[in-house]
Specification:
18 helices; mainly alpha; transmembrane; transmembrane helix
């Protein structure tokens, strides 16, 4: 593990700076947790919404990605610390270090990068810079000098520290976006953002203040043990921290989206918006149906054949309802005529030609009515009186 020497005064300064930010949020988190636990027994868990599921899927892939990047065997892992690889001490001569390093290379021959590093690793300041930032700044930085470690820091930070944290904050912003992840995840936006910024601040602080000699153990200082490399530990520890943080994010989104913890009932404004939205959708559906009916009626009226059939239909309806009078001047219904009564009697007794199945006819009629009036009952129930 990396031994980072942090004095009590440094810890005190950090607490003075972060305490006004962390303590109020911790208190609010504790109160919210107590309220959620008290309501957990009364409110059944809700199923995950599609938006919350989308946010959890993104976090799952992010966790897998960062976990793979935290493994030493991944293709993008940093080069191994040559002091640990060759079991060399901090004061071991450069030629001895690279002679041992050649044994770990193919055909016992140093690579071009090893040769360039050997030409740079000639002083204690250069070795400190190597242990903090790795071989790449020593070899490729054009404005850096061993006498100014801050120049190596400026070269190292953008692509090795800031870019990973910006990528992680991009993921946090995506999974806490209300249009993408829903309101349950969006409520954690400020908390997740502050946690990500705090992690970035700690990372920057370690990279800016770590001294491989002053922070090393006594055995390393006296040349009895190989020194550890900060760049190697941080390159693997950084994605591991992202993995842990994203796992916590996913857990918080899950328990809040399902109502297990941190549940807050919908406000009165949200309830009104939901009622208005339901009423608007019902009115829109009814309006579309009325418009379709109007179009159909206009088509029937404008077409001569359909208009005649429609007139015949309504005349037949009027006749069946007995609205007119018979030849003797007595009002009556067509259902009372002798031929109709006999036909109905034969049908009821099953004596009509073809043998009418009344039960099957009733089922078919019911299915037809249900099909024609589908949705009307639901609209009538949903529409307020």
């Amino acid at each position: 593990m990396v031994e980072v020497g942090i004095s009590f005064q440094t810890i005190k300064s950090l607490l003075i700076f972060f305490a006004p930010i962390i303590i109020p949020r911790a208190i609010n988190l504790y109160r919210g947790l107590r309220i959620s636990l008290s309501q957990a027994g009364r409110i059944p868990p809700r199923p995950l919404s599609p938006l919350a599921t989308r946010a959890l899927n993104v976090l799952f892939f992010a966790i897998v990605l960062f976990l793979l990047l935290s493994l030493p065997v991944n293709p993008h892992a940093p080069a191994a610390n040559i002091f640990s690889l060759t079991r060399s001490r901090l004061n071991t001569p450069t030629e001895v270090i690279f002679t041992r390093l050649a044994r770990h290379r193919a055909d016992n021959v140093l690579t071009e990068e090893d040769t360039l590093l050997r030409s740079k690793l000639t002083s204690m300041a250069a070795r400190k810079a190597y242990l903090r930032f790795g071989a790449e700044p020593l070899i490729n930085c054009q404005f850096c000098s061993p006498g100014s470690l801050q120049s190596y820091l400026l070269y190292y930070l953008p692509f090795n520290v800031l870019v990973p944290h910006l990528f992680h904050m991009l993921i946090v912003g995506l999974v806490t976006s209300a249009p993408f992840a829903g309101q349950e995840a969006a409520q954690w936006r400020n908390t997740f953002t502050l946690a990500g910024l705090a992690l970035a601040a700690v990372d920057l602080y370690i990279m800016a203040t770590y001294d491989p000699v002053q922070s090393a153990s006594t055995a390393v200082k006296f040349g009895q043990a190989p020194p550890s490399a900060l760049y190697y530990r941080m390159a693997l520890g950084r994605p591991l921290a992202f993995t842990i943080l994203d796992a916590v994010y996913a857990a918080l989104i899950y328990v809040s989206a399902t109502g297990r913890l941190f549940f807050s009932p919908p406000s009165q404004a949200d309830q009104i918006d939901q009622i208005v939205s339901t009423a608007t959708s019902s009115l829109t559906s009814a309006s579309s149906k009325l418009h379709a009916l109007s179009v159909t009626r206009n088509a029937v009226v404008r077409q001569k054949v359909l208009k005649n059939r429609d007139d015949e239909y309504w005349r037949a309806v009027v006749a069946m309802e007995g609205s007119g009078g018979n030849a003797d001047g007595n009002s009556g219904s067509i259902w009372e005529e002798e031929e109709v009564v006999k036909a109905m009697s034969r049908a009821m007794n099953g004596q009509a030609r073809g043998g009418i199945d009344l039960s099957r006819l009733g089922v078919q009629a019911g299915e037809y009515v249900d099909e024609v009036t589908a949705g009307l009952e639901n609209d009538a129930v949903e529409r307020p009186e």
